[in-house]
Design brief:
Radius of gyration of chain A: 15 Å
CATH class of the largest domain in chain A: Alpha Beta
Structural class of chain A: alpha+beta
Largest sheet of chain B: 7 strands, mixed
CATH superfamily of the largest domain in chain B: Aldehyde oxidase/xanthine dehydrogenase, molybdopterin binding domain
Helix content of chain A: 25-40%
Structural class of chain B: alpha+beta
Largest sheet of chain A: 5 strands, mixed
Number of domains of chain B: 3
Number of helices of chain A: 5
Oligomer: heterodimer
Helix content of chain B: 25-40%
Shape of chain B: globular
Number of strands of chain B: 28
Number of strands of chain A: 5
Number of domains of chain A: 2
Strand order of the largest sheet of chain B: 3-5-1-12-9-10-11
CATH class of the largest domain in chain B: Alpha Beta
CATH superfamily of the largest domain in chain A: Beta-grasp domain
Distance between the termini of chain A: 44 Å
Number of helices of chain B: 20
CATH topology of the largest domain in chain B: Aldehyde Oxidoreductase, domain 4
Shape of chain A: globular
Radius of gyration of chain B: 28 Å
CATH topology of the largest domain in chain A: Ubiquitin-like (UB roll)
Order of helices and strands of chain A: EEHEEEHHHH
Chain lengths: 159, 788
């Protein structure tokens, strides 16, 4: 089947098997391997991307369901060589260790901060419910997201 | 000695930019031209005879390139070895073929491998492989497995006991005979699944022209994998290149040599095409090693004043169906020898039976034997305190090894390097406001709320370790570490380390060591690891050894560089070496700091070699193979406060305070990260995680739906603090911190839960403290009358 999508602002068109998952499409067809696969039951969230602005687990969608969509992956987060505030937060606050869950965590954080510019620690922890991290114990991830929230608010206020 | 602020600084990690931009290369991201995909056919039976493996239908499936069964590989590959042959035991190592030949022994045992042009095709074809099983009785429980009528797994291990091992010292019988109080308890330290977020995988490429096999794999120790694979594949070691690219967590599960990477390598050589295999998560749950899994009978003898005089125990350690790489050493050397904890207990008798069962093999999972020891000792100390009506803090103070007793030799034969156990406990009590909490607890109890506080004053053995000791305890390798520190002509530095970090941040902390030692800006230093063609022989990352051993190797190499640089500087400055000062990367003659040669000047001069002192070779690089004189022994006091809801049985962690002493700290941000993650795995074991087997050997918790890895809202905000007691034998005073959190945490949580439940008449419960288990225990303890 034919699938046409925009990923990180670039148009792509591919002929694929109908059973292909979106995550395999991104990784294997487009070579965007920043999105990871951590499970096969939609529990871990390592494959989280933004689909038309909404965080989705790309292992839970067929690529054909994404036809016509605008997708953002970790590779598209930085703009003009500048890190996204969420990326900056993860770096500054040591929000990652092995880095495997990180792209999914960051994409979810981007969505959270779009919806809620100043989330409490508790709100962040509940929002992360669908994403597993085995390394950090989450505390530095929470700090990273708080950092990014602050940064985004500052940017908004100054503009 | 150079003093700069980079050592000990909270700097952000240098490995992060590639990881946060999606530019890192994990094993599954490696794609080679013409690559095919392997999928394993795995046993669905816990124990069965294989009557036949029929591959015709699978072979005919479109895209299939080849299928191999156990019988096909029998003559072509070696067995999967065990690499820790503990001495003074009757250890038997039953043969472990890369693919099962005539019998399967656990659910997940690999029976055949299917290779096809796409992963989907290989998967589809694997489903068409028909294995004709004749089911045999199976056993999953280690206590049942040693019964005379139990099903037998291996013909050469008639009682399913792979080894008996014990450590005995002092007059244990007398201590028990003379004890004022004896406390006995059976404890279960249940089975866990490591669950690194990246599953295992590999890509194998064999170049027929050069005869070199290149294997990208998820490895914590590429050189160990290379040497073991060389034996299994009958390929010379120098013709194998193992690359550990970005590795998405290991926690011990990427130490062992498993069948799959060997089989995939064989296929790549045999077929002459690159082969990729990546485990899916369900496969990971059954095919990658598990951790813990003990049943232990414990006794402790004490005097009325709380002095503990002896500890005695018998441990049934479930090792699964085959002895994985380090399996025999985990419940013995890394566990049994730590059974006196942080206490001056003079008499010990501890026996371990290594038991084979129809379950996934058990090997090192974060802490590996030491969390189990800490859990037993810390629970026992609390049980004695409860029996004597003592405060858990006071009994600890009473029995601590005092700070002036170091180096301290335990009755199990270890020598703790340094410690000040009371200091960490005092600090933890201050942070948590112990007296205040006890008042709050009293008040809460009057309101029908059940709060509890739990202590874990742990000590751990890490920094594995002196090679002579490794040999003496049967580890089939050395435990030193290698380092190369190499100046380039422009003054930039490349560091090669035999450690193989996979998230622990040593690309940063090792660069901090080098920057500190050599006075080079950290931006000018690159730390490389994880490639056997690039890095000299090394032993990898596990056992909290990377900083204590790998870091020490780097420090020693830096000292060698400086010794040579000093010679060259003296020559260039026309001064005597002894008259030179070295400060912030500059050599100068004492008293005239303005006339200096920077280390970068020296590096250039060394490479140009236009004017070197006589007898000095060109170039500026040094290598070190550092073999530590002893292990390191980090310690600390962890305090957990919980609330138990008596109506639902739910346990909520309200506070968690961790005061750790890991010697000198290179980067506090990274140390905090290690501690947080470690505690979370410990809390995971205490409250959520549980690998459950049915009686007949089916793993009932084989996905994240059933196996509860802690989520963000299930763990508290951690309060961390540190004391610094340097290791006296480490060049930088460091001790290691990779496992402390996991080693300490389960006991702290368990003691807190038991403290909360004490007024309800509950003395001991086994983990995990699931709501159901706690609720049932409360109901049982209270009888029909219900909660008071």
């Amino acid at each position: 089947m034919r699938v046409a999508v925009h990923v990180n602002g670039r148009p792509y068109e591919r002929d694929i098997e109908p059973r292909m998952l979106l995550v395999h499409f991104l990784r294997d067809e487009l070579g965007l391997t920043g999105t990871h696969i951590g499970c096969d039951t939609s529990n871990c969230g390592a494959c989280t991307v933004l689909l038309d602005g909404k965080a989705v687990k790309s292992c839970t969608l067929l690529a054909v369901q994404a036809d016509g969509a605008d997708i953002l992956t970790v590779e598209g987060l930085s703009q003009d060589g500048r890190l996204h505030p969420v990326q900056e937060g993860f770096w500054e606050e040591h929000g990652l260790q092995c880095g495997f869950c990180t792209p999914g965590m960051m994409m979810l954080a981007v969505e959270l901060l779009q919806r809620e510019p100043d989330p409490s620690e508790e709100a962040i922890r509940h929002y992360l419910e669908g994403n597993l991290c085995r390394c950090t114990g989450y505390q530095h991830i929470v700090h990273a997201i708080r950092y990014a929230a602050q940064k985004l608010r500052e940017t908004r206020e100054s503009s | 000695m150079v003093v700069t602020r980079i050592f000990g600084a909270r700097i952000k990690r240098r490995e992060d930019p590639r990881l946060i931009t999606g530019q890192a290369t994990y094993t599954d991201d490696v794609v080679l031209p013409g690559m095919c995909y392997a999928v394993f056919v795995r046993s669905v039976q816990a124990h069965a005879r294989i009557r036949a493996v029929r591959t015709d239908a699978a072979q005919a499936h479109p895209g299939v390139i080849a299928i191999f069964t156990g019988r096909d590989l029998q003559e072509k590959m070696g067995l999967i070895p065990t690499a820790w042959l503990i001495p003074d035991s009757d250890l038997k190592t039953p043969p472990h073929p890369p693919l099962a030949v005539d019998r399967v022994r656990y659910v997940g045992d690999a029976v055949a491998v299917v290779l096809a042009t796409t992963r989907a095709a290989a998967s589809d074809a694997a489903a068409l492989v028909e294995v004709d099983y004749e089911p045999l009785p199976a056993v999953a429980d280690p206590e049942k497995a040693v019964q005379p009528d139990a099903p037998r797994l291996h013909d050469d291990v008639p009682d399913n006991v792979a080894f008996h091992w014990k450590v005995v010292n002092g007059d244990v019988d007398r201590a028990f005979a003379e004890a004022d109080v004896v406390v006995r308890q059976r404890m279960v330290n249940h089975r866990l699944v490591p669950c690194a977020m990246e599953t295992r995988g590999c890509v194998a490429h064999y170049n027929k022209g050069s005869g070199e096999l290149t294997l990208w794999m998820t490895s914590q120790n590429p050189h160990i994998h290379r040497v073991i694979l060389s034996g299994i594949l009958h390929l010379p070691e120098h013709r194998i290149r193992v690359i550990a690219p970005e590795v998405g967590g290991g926690f011990g599960s990427k130490i062992p040599c498993y069948p799959e990477e060997a089989v995939v390598s064989f296929c790549a050589v045999e077929l002459g095409v690159p082969v990729k295999w990546v485990e899916d998560r369900r496969e990971n749950f059954v095919a990658t090693i598990h951790g813990r899994d003990h049943v232990v009978y414990l006794e402790v003898a004490a005097r009325k004043d709380g002095t503990i005089t002896a500890i005695r125990g018998k441990c049934y350690a479930n090792l699964g169906a085959y002895l994985s790489t380090a399996a025999p050493g985990i419940p013995t050397i890394l566990h049994g020898l730590m059974m006196c904890g942080a206490y001056r207990i003079p008499n010990v008798h501890y026996e371990v039976l290594g038991v084979l069962t129809n379950t996934t093999p058990v090997d090192a999972y974060r802490g590996a034997g030491r969390p189990e020891a800490t859990y037993y000792v810390e629970r026992l100390v609390d049980l004695v305190a409860a029996e004597l009506g003592m405060d858990p803090v006071e009994i600890r103070r009473k029995n601590f090894i005092p700070k002036d007793a170091f180096p301290y030799t335990t009755p199990t034969g270890l020598t703790y390097d340094s410690g000040d156990y009371e200091r960490t406990l005092d600090e933890a009590l201050r942070i948590v406001d112990y007296a205040g909490f006890r008042r709050e607890q009293e008040e809460a109890r009057r309101q029908g709320r059940y709060l509890g506080i739990g202590f874990s004053t742990y000590v751990e053995i890490c920094g594995l370790g002196p090679s002579q000791v490794a040999g003496a305890v049967g580890f089939q390798g050395g435990l030193w570490e290698s380092a190369v520190v190499r100046f380039h002509p422009t003054g930039k530095v490349t560091v090669l380390t035999g450690s193989s970090p996979h998230g622990q941040g040593e690309e940063t902390t090792f660069a901090q060591i080098v920057a500190d030692q050599l006075g080079v800006p950290i931006e000018d230093i690159e730390v490389l690891h994880g490639d056997t063609d690039l890095i000299p022989m090394g032993w990898g990352t596990y056992g909290s050894r990377t900083t204590p051993v790998g870091g020490a190797a780097i420090a020693v190499a830096c000292q060698r560089i400086l010794a040579k640089a000093r010679q060259i500087a003296a020559h260039l400055l026309e001064a005597a070496e002894d008259d030179l000062e070295f400060e912030n990367g500059r050599f100068y003659v004492k008293g005239s700091p303005d006339k200096a040669k920077t280390i970068q000047d020296i590096a250039l001069a060394a490479h140009l070699a236009w004017s070197l002192p006589s007898g000095v070779e060109p170039g500026l690089e040094a290598q070190a193979f550092y073999d530590p004189p002893n292990f390191t022994y980090p310690f600390g006091a962890h305090v957990c406060i919980v609330e138990v809801d008596p109506e639902t049985g739910e346990v909520k962690v309200l506070r968690y305070v961790a005061v750790d002493d890991c010697g000198r700290v290179i980067n506090p941000l990274i140390v905090d990260g290690q501690v947080h993650g470690g505690i979370t795995q410990g809390i995971g074991q205490a409250l959520y995680e549980w690998a459950v087997y049915s009686e007949d050997g089916q793993l009932l918790t084989a996905s994240f739906n059933e196996y509860a890895v802690p989520k963000a809202h299930q763990v508290p905000r951690y309060e961390t603090a540190r004391t610094e007691t340097p290791s006296p034998h480490h060049p930088l005073g460091c001790k290691g911190v990779g496992e402390t959190g996991t080693i300490a945490a389960t006991a702290a949580v368990a003691n807190a839960v038991m403290d909360a439940l004490r007024p309800l008449g509950i003395r001991h419960l086994d983990m995990p403290f699931t709501p159901e288990r706690v609720w049932r225990a409360i109901r049982q303890a209270q009888g029909p009358g219900g909660i008071p």
